[in-house]
Amino acid sequence: MTQSVVVQVGQCGNQVGCRFWDLALREHAAVNKKGIYDEALSSFFRNVDTRAVGHKIYGCQYRENIVEKLRKTAEHCDCLQCFFIIHSMGGGTGSGLGTFVLNLLEEEFPEVYRFVTSVYPSGEDDVITSPYNSVLAMKELNEHADCVLPIENESLFEIVNKIHQMINSGKLGSTVKQNSLLTSSAGSAKTLQEKPFDAMNNIVANLLLHLTSSARFEGSLNMDLNEISMNLVPFPRLHYLVSSLTPLYTLADVNVPSRRLDQMFSDAFSRDHQLIQADPKHSLYLACALLVRGNVQVSDLRRNIERLKPSLHFVSWNQEGWKTGLCSVPPVGHSHSLLALANNTCIKPTFIELKDRFMKLYKKKAHLHHYLQIDGMEQSCFSEAISSLSDLIEEYNELDATKDGPRIDPSRLKIAV
Questions:
Q1: Do residues 152 and 123 lie in contact, with contact meaning Cβ atoms separated by under 8 Å?
Q2: How far, rounded to the nearest angstrom, does the alpha carbon of residue 54 sit from its chain's CA centroid?
């Protein structure tokens, strides 16, 4: 039984982490009726509290304290497999200290995988310097993360609204419960006028629940976290995985018709279910993973991959780039669910938009003096960061240039297991 450690940094990281712990405990309570500390719970995580701000000053100032907490937590693990870092890119704490901790983890635990869940700011972000913070953080993610799962606030907000509209319209009939466990906290209704941050954070928490389900529960085809990195990251810097969750609502019935199950797979590749503003179906896939929970068979996986594959564009040298996982325990309130992780060039527009927002400020040197007052922060840090981001965008451009080339259709479908 492997273990993972979750490191929550900044306001956003801690809010998402709180929702993750709450939902994870609900899952274990639903399965473990007697409340016994079982093997599934022994793989559980210990929360690491890192109170500090920024990369250059407070990261260095509290370095030894942070390292000590990480080491003590790691000592409780019999087989430490992965670190999860949850942070935002726009704020100073999440971006600065979050990437500082990422560097620490690589130094102190170089053999342990580092998965980063990064919440990217929207164009209407209320932190005016968020483009600076985000691009500076991107350089660190490029160099020190094994996998990054980008999340966009705007996408989360749209998904929450979509769930409310689907339920309130009554179009889904009696098969849908009134409260979606993907978004609801304690059954309290949120008005659409206010930003439902708890509901948005729940979606990210559910992403983490899916990622860790194989380590916490049994399954006929469980997937280790290291297998995600090994199978989905063909090049070191191209480790950004676009994620989607489906279904978005809670089904009331347990006996699932195959048609509805097939729709779940179709939805995972649609634009509406992506956790960033992207359309992977019309972009180029380097690889794709499907992590399924609940009453789903391997034959269901194979059938749907065969059905969907002709409509998806894969790189010519990895036409069979699928990785699949099956966990027998579904999320609470669901009979089945699916997390899709795609290494796909559709992430490129997000990076281009971030670069454009950065350059609007940087060309005028606006707000730059706030950063240059900090010891160790020089203007070269900014030029190196934007150069790193530009290089990353160019790597995706080179891949996209091959999209319209001849497609190689393998004579036989192969699924990595």
A1: no
A2: 23
String of DSSP letters for 317-380: GGTT-EEEEEESSPPTT-SEEEEEEEEEGGGHHHHHHHHHHHHHHHTTTTTHHHHHTSTT--HH
Residue-wise pLDDT for 204-250, tens only, equals 888 888 888 888 887 778 888 889 999 999 999 999 999 998 887 65
CB contact at 8 A, 27 and 41:
no
Radius of gyration of the chain (CA): 21
Q: How far is CA 290 from the centre of its chain?
A: 13
Mean of per-residue pLDDT scores for the chain: 80
Residue 51 has pLDDT above 80, yes or no: no
Question: Which has more confidence, 26 or 270?
Answer: 270
Tokens of 13: 């990281």
Give the whole-angstrom CA distance, residue 208 versus residue 16: 10
Question: Do residues 324 and 414 touch, judged by C-beta distance below 8 A?
Answer: no
Question: What phi and psi values does residue 235 have, to the nearest 5 degrees?
Answer: -130, 140
DSSP characters over 163-201 = HHHHHHH-TTGGGB-SS-TTT-SSS----TTS--HHHHH
pTM, 2 dp: 0.81
- For residue 69, which amino acid is it? K
**Spatial CB neighbours of 342, under 8 Å, sequence gap ≥ 6:** 241, 242, 243, 244, 280, 285, 287, 288, 289
Closest CA to 291 of 206, 196, 173: 206
Q: How many CB atoms lie within 10 A of CB 396?
A: 22
Closest CA to 395 of 202, 235, 249, 247: 235
The DSSP bridge pattern shows strands 336-344 and 242-246 to be antiparallel
Following DSSP, what letter does each residue of 82-135 receive, concatenated?
EEEEEEESSSHIIIIIHHHHHHHHHHH-TTSEEEEEEEEPPTT-S-TTHHHHHH
